[in-house]
Fold NAD(P)-binding domain-containing protein.
Amino acid sequence: MPFVENPMEEEPLLGNQPIWAEAPLLIGQSRFEPVDNKVIMITGAAGFIGSWVARHLTIVYPEYHIISFDKMDYCATWNNNAQLSGLPNFSFFKGDITSPENVLDCLRKYRVDTVMHFAAQSHVDLSFGNSLDFSINNNQGTHVLLECVRKYGRVKKFIHVSTDEVYGEVGDDEDDLLETALLEPTNPYAASKAGAEQMVHAYYKSFKIPAIAVRSNNVYGPHQYPEKVIPKFILLLQRGKRLTLHGNGLHTRRYLFAGDAADAFDTVLHKGEVGHKYNVGSRDEISNLDLCKKLLQHFKTDKVEENLESYIEHVQDRPFNDHRYAVDGSRLGQLGWEQRTSFEDGLRMTVEWYRKFGSGWWGDVESRLTPFPEPPTPAPDENEVQEKGLGYDAPAEGGAMRSGDKWSFSSILTALFFEQA
């Protein structure tokens, strides 16, 4: 069943064309021998990494049917899926992972046999002041998804997207962590992802859900919502503003280009072993301060080092800011995956993309460019959107909900009980 219609009322334009029509269609580089009967539901596929994987699988594997399942939260956009519009092997379903009706309706409607679960609240800064939403979306949402998959009973592979942050802080003199390392999350976001991962493991053990967990380093690249550090800094530089650096800027992160991340998930999809966990590790580790310097070199022609303090504003640090994360990705490497894009090349491509498209891709993002953005406002009422005649693939009658509403734990249990009855 092909995609229905654009769920946006007005598309941002670049010249006379919708902005997405002017952008390059970005995918990974991997390709494996297709397997039979792949109907893949990708939660969060209108977001950053999920949309890269959705584009990659839709284009590289025309034999597969890809379903983008997304509630269209503030950090998602139709532009991330629009280039797939009209392709016979792509569909969009507007739904929330905390809604059993939405999830079961999608699973049954398309006869899904594979789930790739990207949907999550993921911005660490927001988790310090809005941690309950992270528990609802990341823990409760994952639990609902798993229970619906159990009831549906036809999923052959469930790929859960976790994060390297579940391991907690890694010292400078410590070895890269293997998948068997203890989980010691240090912030509410990481704790919610660790909890979700434990629920996935429990469903694998108790109910034989064919699950795999993937823990990746920081992913960057085009299509990333500009609350994250690299796109935020690019847009600040475009506006002639100073870069707001948390603390002393000496915390380090390992960065992986989004195209390489798409290849990693493609590899896990086709070659990953059920019951296993896979780290996706990068060799490019850089401090936040050095990241500022690299970005400044793309925008400033004068001597960056000598004038550094005029371009950077040191602001209050996070309540707790892990010094670094470091994972060993050799298990995934044994399946054939490798990092192909250097940080220099990936950063150059990312800067070029945001210079052309970043200011219009998500609409007004000015409020997200502050050191600690406030929690976003709820999404529009779904019923209001429907009344305007927009044709997204909405849930069946009785499963409708407000996009901004939160399902309580009791309402989820009630919905699942009546579904079983």
